[in-house]
Amino acid sequence: MYSHCDGALPTEAGRFLVSGCGLLGRDEALALRARLMSLVDGPDVEADWWRRNWVPWAANHDGASCLFVDTGPGQRRLLLQGAGREAQLWPSLTAFLVALVDAVEEGTPFFGETPAVHGEALGWD
User: Taking the CB of the first residue and of the last residue of the chain, which one, N or C, has fewer CB atoms within 10 A?
Assistant: First the structure.
């Protein structure tokens, strides 16, 4: 993905993914992962909130909601973790994008949010 696009502009149009998430550049993804890892201070926090093998690739403006890849042994799945919401699982980035496009084309909810146009940008209500 990063060979084609190194993030999105931090504008409303750049936050076109669900939960106000925008694509992170490689350096932004590494910085957010480091920040989240610094909050993990033991196995209880890791088990309940963040795992060391999760790598974010998209996030909202403060990182409270983010899309990440689980790189753990036997995994390779994509997840969306939102503030106060359960994680949603997709088996791949392709499966996530297909579900996102289907929701946009059909105007149906995706992870509890409905696609909407805000100005000239895709947003989620």
Answer: C
* pLDDT for 55: 84
Residue 13, domain member (yes or no):
no
Please indicate, yes or no, if residue 110 is contained in any of the structural domains: yes
d(CA 34, CA 101): 31
Domain with 77 in it: 18-120
Q: Confirm whether 9 is domain-assigned.
A: no
Beta bridge partners of 124: 115
Reduce the DSSP state of residue 98 to 3 states and report it: helix
Handedness of CA 119, 108, 83, 89 (dihedral sign): negative
Three-class secondary structure of residue 10 per DSSP: coil
Summarize pLDDT for 93-125 with one digit per residue, the tens: 788 889 889 999 999 998 788 988 888 888 888
* 77 DSSP β-pair partners: 70
The total domain count for the chain is: 1
| Average pLDDT value for residue range 66-85 | 70
DSSP reduced 3-state for 14:
coil
